[in-house]
Every structure is written in structure tokens, then in C-alpha cells.
Amino acid sequence: MKLSASQTKLVGLTMELDLKAKEYKILCEKLAKLKENNIDEKNVIFIQLKEEFWQNYEEIVNINKQIKELEKSKSS
Amino acid sequence: MEKLTKSFVGFNDSLSLEEETLERLYKFAEILDKNKFSIPLVYAEALIENGLEEKFYTNADFRFFKSEFRNINDVLCNFPKEEIIDFFKFANSLGCFSTEKIRDKRGKETEVLLAQKATTVLARLLKTEQLKIGNYHNLFASMPFETDSNQEFLRFIALKDKDKFQNLDLLIALERKYSGVFCKIMGNFEEAKSFRDCLDEQGKPIKIAWEEALEKYYLSNQYEGVAKEDKDIAEVFAGKGLSQEVFEQAVNLRRQAKENHTPEHLLGESLQEETILQCIERIKKQTETELIFGKQMIEELYDKQFTYEWLSKNDPRNSILGLFCSCCSTITSRFYGRDIAEYSVIAEDIQNLVVRNTKGEIIAKGTFYLNKEIGYGVINDFELNKIYRNHEYEFEHGKYHVDINSKEEEERKMIFKAFQRGLQAFVEKYNQKNPKNPIKQINVGIGCNKLKRQIETFRKESGNLSIPYEYNFQDAEEEQYILYQEKSIGKNKEVGEDGR
After folding, report:
1. Which of B134, B220, B126, B125 is nearest to B178 (CA)?
2. Which long-range contacts (CB under 8 A, 24 or more apart) does B212-217 make?
3. Test the B interface: residue of A28, A53, A54, A56 with most B CBs within 10 Å
4. Residue B300: its chain A contacts at CB < 8 A?
5. Taking a C-beta distance cutoff of 8 angstroms, is the pair B445, B457 a contact?
6. What b/e sequence results for A35-53 when a residue is b if at least 16 CB atoms lie within 10 Å of its CB, and e otherwise?
7. Do B358 and A6 touch (CB under 8 A)?
8. Which of A50, A66, A76 is the best substitution to test chain B (most B C-beta atoms within 10 A)?
């Protein structure tokens, strides 16, 4: 069956969100390991990790914006 | 007299004991003698003094202790009376004489006795630096004689990592900080353990480390009459070794502030610089919210690839729905679908519930009969356009040879969900308008139903709901499945909640 343009976009966004969710899980695991090893939170690794968390968050927010737009275009 | 000498190490004729004590010792000796077991006289006397000797020897099993510690009385006789008493107190509280059966992780009783397990553990603990003979009085002087054994504590203390009893180390470290904590935890292990489950700053349930939990338990139990909301004060104040009086003063001050509705902050809100970790935790929380939100939107969008509509009787498609849904429901049909198509237009108690795809095309339908008097509905079956019926078994309509998670089956699931939403909305509106005679049940026929896989997850009807003969609902004649049922007055079930 042929997918419409909006369906294709939805599939694409679903995949992107899944990917970002996986990245988020990896970051959480990294954080847990650092905590386990009692690494000092002033260590540069923590600062880098914070940046990575922030980037991941911003990307997810961006995907959600696109999903919302798709939702709007479908209902209009 | 011989029995007393044999049963109680340290007993001799020259001792001057009260008559009552002597009588009780005789009774005690009877049991010990039968078991060919002996204990230090000082411990027996201490038990008698506390009125606990009967509790000690009734239903006790001395076999394991006797065989594991053959020379214990010889070793102990070199130590002061208090050390002997406190060693036995610890052994007894650990369960070394208990006839209780060990429970497995699921709480089921095994054949192993607690006495056996506790004795083995005690033998190992005795070999450690912390719990060798000579240290018992220091640690267990404050332990009450009546401390009951606790299997969970036994498991906890017996935990060994390589050569170290990690939890014993933990308790000893705490004991160094707060004298008496070991006994307190041992005697109240369930309560102490419960401190592991708490909430984080955001109110999310978390499990904290043993060390932190046990310390929290001990500190918050240092004062009398600590209310739940004052546990934090107790923890901080006990940590600083402050008295009950000071604790109470602080409690009263805070209560006073609360009663006067004094704001917690001058600004009316908390103002605090985030540490890096706190910042990460905040981003994490925000990310989790976004992920849930995104997934919800996606789910809704996928679901709404198919939307329901209760088709107006005025709509010309009612007469020829079979052409959209690949079935016999047309007014030109030679089959029973002709009656269904005709009555869909003219009968006032029948209406078609259709499902459209993203292009707005009707791709599925269910013809619904409503019995207003009794308050039930029956759908003949769910029909589906042939493009959604790929992989269908030729002779078994509605059965598909594809994996339940395949894309095709996913689509059929979404179509079924659209039907469910349509029925749910109908029931809600109808019951609002007809509170005295609401819809109590909706069944669907399985006959040639094209969504068999979805329908068969519901409960089968034992006695079918009836439909007027002339409507010719042949698919609902043989077997019906219950899609909706109102269980009790005031508690409406959602359509599809019955799905197994």
C-alpha cells in the first residue's frame, strides 16, 4: 500500500523520536556509571554529559514541534 | 542436683540460690537434659530473672548449636559474665534455637530450620574480627532479652562479598558513629528496611542505599513521639546529638510557623543555585516529559489514520456500503446483505458505524441494531475493504496468516480501535440522553467478521442477544462476543475493556 506524504512524515518522525529516546537511555546509563564510581561532579565529564543531555533534549523538543505541526495540518 | 550441674555450666552445690529460682532451674534442666545440652548458669539466671526461660526452652531446637559449638562453654568461661550473657542473647535473637522454617524469596516455607541456618551464620560471624568472642558485650549490652529472630535480618547480615561480610561492616561502621544502632536495627529490621523506599525531590519513588536508609531510621527514632512530618527534624537533631527537649522546641517552632501560615521563603518561592548534577536531573525530567508527550502525539496520529463516523441515514452510501467495504451489503445483492442495506436506510433502530482512512474513504463498517426498550445493541459484524484483507485465509474470513505485530495486523488493530472509539462515544452520548434506560451491553457477531483476531480477545456471549428476524443479521446469529457491558449501576465500563 502506498503511504501518503503525511504518513511518510509520521513514520520518519517516529523513527527519529525512537532514536533520540535510545540516545537518552545511553546518556542515563553513562550518568549512572559515573555516580556508581563516585566521580566528583565538578569533573569535566559531568559538564560534557550535561551538554549532551541538553542537546538530546533540544532535539526531542524539535521533533515534537514537527509532530505537532503535522497534527495541525491533518486537522485543518 | 546432678542434672543442674550437667545442664548449667558454673553451677555447684555451694551456690546460695532462692528456692523459687532453684525450682525454675530444675524445670529448665529437665528440658536441657533431655536434649543433652548445657548453657552457662549466668545466662539461665538472666533468663529466669526476666521471666523468659520458658519462652527460651519451649519449642526450641538445640541440635545445631550443640553440634556447631561443641566447646563454646569452655571458651566463654574465660570471659566476664556480661560477655557470656550478651553472646547468648545475640545467638538467640539470630534464631540459633528457633524451630521456625526458613522461607524462600517468595515467602514459601522450606524444609530448612532457622536454627540450622542461623547457627551456620553465627559460626561464620564468630570468625570475623568484629564479632569474635570478647566483642559481644560492647555491641549487644542494650539488646533486650525479648528480641525476636528475623529471617530477613539473618539474610542481610549473612551477605558476603568475596571474603567480607559487607552488611556487618556497614552495621559496625554505623555503631561506631551511633552507639546502640546495631541492636536497634536488629530488633526492628522490618521498620528499618522500610526506610529504603522513599521519594526523591520530585516526589518520584526511589530506593536509597542501605547505609543511608539505616542511618535515617536510627536517627529518626531517637526521640519519643516523632510525628511523620517531624522526622526530618529528628534526623538532623539526632545527628547532632541534641536532647529530646531541644528537638521538641524545634518541632513547636515549626508548627507555630505553619499555624501562622508563615511563607517558607521571603520571595514566596525557592531560590537556589543548581549543581551540575541537579541541572542534569532537571534536564532528564524535562526530557522524559517530552518523550512521553511525543509518543502520545504519535500514537494519536497513528490511531487517527482511521476515524469513525455514525453514517447519517441520508447518506446515499448506506444502500451500497458493500461496494466500499467489499461485502454483500448492497440493495442489489442476492445475499442477506440486501436486507441489511435496505434496513440501514429505513429502520429507525439501525445505523451504520463506518471507519474512514486518511483520504476520507470509507473502508470498514459495522451495522448496529439498537434495542431501546431493553437497552442493548448488536453489530452484525465488522466488514473491511479488500485492501486491508490481504493475507486472509480464503475459507475463513477474518483469519489472517500474518504475525500479530505485522504492519497489516497493526492496521487492522487501528481500524478496530476506531470502531471501539465510535461505540464508546455512542454509549456515552446515548446514556447521557437516556439515563433511565441506558445501553447495558453491546455484542458483535463473529460469523464472517473480518476482524476476528481482535473480536476473539473478548468474552463470548453464552446466550445471544436477539435481533428482529427481518433484519437478517446472519453473522450475529451463531456466535456473539461482548464488546461492552455495564457491570453495575453507576460503573460504566469502557468499550473494549472486556478484552482479555
Report:
1. B220
2. B214/B170, B214/B171, B214/B174, B214/B181, B214/B185, B215/B174, B215/B177, B215/B178, B217/B185, B217/B188, B217/B191, B217/B192
3. A53
4. 71
5. no
6. eeeeeebeeeebeebbebb
7. yes
8. A50
CB contact under 8 A, B294 and A17: yes
Task: Give the cell for residue B435.
Answer: 439515563
Q: What is the dihedral sign for C-alpha B33, B39, B40, B46?
A: negative
Residues of A in contact with B287 (CB under 8 A): 24, 53, 56-57, 60
Residue-wise pLDDT for B413-455, tens only, equals 999 999 999 999 999 999 999 999 999 999 999 999 999 999 9
- Our CA-based measurement puts residue A66 at a distance from the nearest CA of chain B, in whole angstroms, of 10
Residue A41 touches chain B, beta carbons under 8 Å = yes
Residue A58, pLDDT score: 96
Which grid coordinates belong to B342? Answer: 435496505
pLDDT of residue A52: 96
What HEC string does B192-246 produce? HHHCCEEECCCCCEEECCHHHHHHHHHHHCCCCCCCHHHHHHHHHHHHCCCCHHH
| Inter-chain residue contact A31 with B295, CB threshold 8 Å | no
Q: What DSSP assignment string belongs to B379-428?
A: EEEEEE-GGG-TTB-TTSTT-B-S-TTSHHHHHHHHHHHHHHHHHHHHHH
The owner of cell 512530618 is B229
Residue B5 has pLDDT above 70, yes or no: yes
What is the pLDDT averaged over residues B283-287? 95
Whether A7 sits inside 8 A of B387 (CB atoms) is: no
pLDDT level of residue B163 (50, 70, 90 thresholds): confident
| Confidence at residue B489, expressed as pLDDT on a 0 to 100 scale | 38
**Rounded to whole angstroms, how far apart are CA atoms B254 and B244?**
16
Chain B residue with Cα closest to A57: B287
Nearest CA in chain A to B390: A1
Task: Tell me if chain A has a CB within 8 Å of the CB of B292.
Answer: no
| pLDDT string in tens for chain A (76-residue length) | 556 777 788 889 999 999 999 999 999 999 988 887 878 877 889 999 999 999 999 999 999 999 999 888 866 6
Q: What is the pLDDT of residue B12?
A: 81
Residue B362 binned pLDDT confidence (cut-offs 50, 70, 90):
very high
CB-based contact A57 B300, cutoff 8 Å: no
Chain B residues inside the 8 Å CB shell of A13:
298
CA distance A65 to chain B (A): 9
Q: How far is A32 from chain B (nearest CA, A)?
A: 11
With beta carbons under 8 A apart, name residues in chain B contacting A20: 291
**How many other CB atoms sit within 10 Å of the CB of residue A68?**
14
Contact B191, B217 (CB under 8 A): yes
pTM: 0.48
Residue-wise pLDDT for B472-498, tens only, equals 999 999 899 999 998 643 344 556 554
Q: Is A74 on the interface with B (CB under 8 A)?
A: yes
Closest of B483, B467, B480, B460 to residue B336, by C-alpha: B467
**Which secondary structure element, helix H or strand E, spans residue B94, and what is its range?**
helix B81-94
